[in-house]
Amino acid sequence: MMSDGALSQDEIDALLSGVDSSSMSGLGGGSPAATMTAPSAPPSFDRMVLEKFFASTTNALSNNLAALTGSSVTLVGPKVAAFSRDSFLSQLPDMVTTITANYNSGFPGEHIFILPEVSAKAIASLMTKEDNIQLDEMAMSVIGEVVSQMVGTQITALTSETGNKSIAAASPNAVNVRKATAPLPAGDFAVMSYNLDLGDGQSHQMWEILGSSPATDISNGLSGKSQAVPAGAGMGAQNMGQGMGQNMGMGMGMPMGGMGMGNMGMGMGMPMGGMGMGMPMGGMGMSNMGPTNVQQVQFPNLMQPRLGPHEAGNIGLIMDVSMEMTVELGRTRKLIKEILGMGEGTIIELDKLAGEPVDILVNHKLIAKGEVVVIDENFGVRVTEIVSPMERINDMGYN
Q1: 106-118, pLDDT tens digit by residue?
Q2: pLDDT tens, 183-224?
Q3: Is the dihedral of CA 255, 261, 262, 266 positive or negative?
Q4: DSSP string, 84-96
Q5: Cβ contacts of residue 204 below 8 Å, gap of 6+?
């Protein structure tokens, strides 16, 4: 049957994200998933080294997730493989939640987590204790915090294993998108596939993705391989030092006694005895210096302040500490004489309007806003807005 020329939604998404629409055949319209294709070339990273390291962190990650969600959570895996964009997209459901947490320094490059939409909702529901949750801004913030804890734990372990103390990642950014527009690395990349048990009787999956460059650098760092030094780097300075030593120090060619005081006072037009200064302007080893190696200075990308790897990794130690939570309806200021004159029936006008959200405080620090509800015979508060994680961290005194 002839096609009417209309594009499917997957093909439209592929065009918008810069993916060749010809690679989308077999992904839309309910057709079977495409078979996995091998990467275009052997991967530059060591799959077994990555698999061993990330598997060693799963117990700590499971404990962190359990503490954050208040439920029994188990992370199993990972299995590590090399994928191209097309072959990996064929493994994903139509809608996914992507959490980008790129490494800024240490092993800079792409670092992305991907969850099926149903799994992202399950995690957000455990965190907020709400059923039928929607993946709105609040849910994305909650999922971002979960990934932030995971990344912090991994960075702590990675620093310990490699000795690289400059490893840092950007604050996670979570979005829910169609798989065709997922922000995947270019070329071939490493994919760590985990199984996630959230205690809901369902099997969930999670994928952690490293671009080719950070995957290679991390596997080399873990296996003790030094990074390659660009050809010629540092040779200019070495040759310059040698040339200066040979032509300046050795070229003087005279005993110290050759600087007779009689010759010193004979004037600038006279040769200076045995000093042997007779060399051209280029005689200070410039001909032996070799080409100067000029490189562009690269500075790490600016990022929002975040917890360091040690603070993020150790926060699990205080998860059982009790904190006072209060709900503030409003505030006002009164003179002492007005306060002393208060009695039964006195009405106090607050600084908030009727229907305006109330403030939710932890240890007198604002963390969220909500609306007052009645549960049976008790008052309660439904959370409507979460203060951004960085604002809460700053308010709690972390620098």
Answers
A1: 999 999 999 999 9
A2: 999 899 999 999 999 888 888 999 999 999 999 999 999 998
A3: positive
A4: -HHHHHTTS-SEE
A5: 115, 116, 118, 119, 122, 195, 196, 197, 198
162's tokens: 């490699």
Q: What is the DSSP letter of 287?
A: G
CA distances from 2 to 29, 190, 287 (A): 16, 40, 74
Q: How confident is the model at residue 296 (pLDDT cuts 50, 70, 90)?
A: low
pLDDT tens per residue, range 27-55: 333 333 334 444 556 778 899 999 999 99
Q: Residue 234 and residue 198: Cα distance in Å, rounded? A: 53
Torsion, CA 115, CA 117, CA 120, CA 121, rounded to 10? -170
- Amino acid 370 reads G
Q: What is the pLDDT of residue 8?
A: 60
Per-position b or e across 263-296, b if 16+ CB within 10 A of its CB = eeeeeeeeebbeeeeeeeeeebbeeebeeeeeee
Contact by Cβ (8 Å): 188, 39: yes
